[in-house]
Amino acid sequence: MQIDADMRALAATLLDWYREMGVDTAIADEPVDWLAQGDAAPGAAFRLPSAAADRHADSLPPGGERLRPGGTPPSQVRESPPLFSPPQGERAVTSRADARPGFSATPPDAAELAARSLAGKAATLEELETALAAFDGCGLKATAKNLCFYRGVPQARLMIIGEAPGREEDLEGKPFVGRAGQLLDKMLAAISLKEENVHITNVVYWRPPGNRTPTPQEAQVCRPFLERQMQLVDPEVVLLLGGAAAKQVLGTTDGIMRIRGKWRQIEVGGHPVQTMATLHPAYLLRTPAAKRQAWRDLLAVQTALDQGSAS
Ligand code: URA
Questions:
Q1: 164 pocket-lining for ligand 1 (C-beta < 6 Å)
Q2: Which of 122, 193, 228, 292 could form a cystine bridge with 197, CB 3.0-4.6 A?
Q3: Quick check: CB of 175 below 6 Å from ligand 1?
């Protein structure tokens, strides 16, 4: 009896410690010993699903080209061109160092190249989701419960891109279903739009642990899927929610307060698409006074959609 009580007290102490460390959800029924995985980052066990690449990798001579953590030699992955490009004068930000003036773009690593190859082969959103579900190149997948692909309709005139799934999204496997999502739905309703009129997604498809901002590498490895998704959705207007989405899609290092409310044109699969960055609903929940600015941005989006294109 005393032993049971001691074990319960011990378990309660351990759970308290987990909670204080930021653990707020269990991701599997069985514990995983991450320490037993050596130094590899979660997700690093990724392999390009190409028999030819694997054959080649297996037959590399000792001292031949070193495998990246992804398992595939970079030279074996054929790079296809990016499917969307940021506005003229801006370029995609690939890392913090890259964001500093004078630094050249970091070469894409094997995981990103494989993502590009997989995403480029997807002819439909279903195929893209299947490819994403099988893709192990993003470390976020290892600690998430579910893939959060999109909410809304497959083709929409308005595509909305946020930062990353949170706890509720991870549990449900859909973007923007928590408190921020409820506010987003109200914002859309205010301009006469519903879930059936829009396509909602994020810069990364898995919840970052503890809801931290995705790293530039995590965003970058998901980017080919997002580019392909934009092509397949074929929107007229893309609304970017918050700084992370705006930075990733527009390739700018400017803060959200500077870039919000302005139309910028990007190219998606060779077609011009208008984008508008605005404040993230999670920020609006914390800072209700900023809703006025977001409202102005939404009205501009509504006008653009009413007129058939953004100006
Ligand atoms: N915040 C986001 O950026 N995306 C979600 O899906 C939920 C909250």
A1: yes
A2: 193
A3: yes
CA-to-CA dists, residue 45 to 48, 223, 228, 263, angstroms? 10, 20, 24, 40
For the sheet with 198-202, list strands across it.
84-85, 263-268, 271-278, 237-241, 158-162, 198-202, 151-152
* Measured torsion, CA atoms of residues 273, 278, 283, 284, in degrees rounded to the nearest 10: -120
Q: What is the pLDDT of residues 236-264, one digit of tens each?
A: 999 999 999 999 999 999 999 999 999 99
**Alpha carbon of 48 to ligand 1 centroid (Å):** 28
Cβ neighbours of residue 263 under 8 Å, at least 6 residues apart?
Answer: 274, 275, 276, 300, 304, 310, 311
- How far does the centroid of ligand 1 lie from the alpha carbon of residue 11, in Å? 32
Whether pTM > 0.85 for this model: the answer is no
- Mutate-to-test residue for ligand 1 from 202, 203, 285, highest number of ligand atoms within 8 A of CB: 202
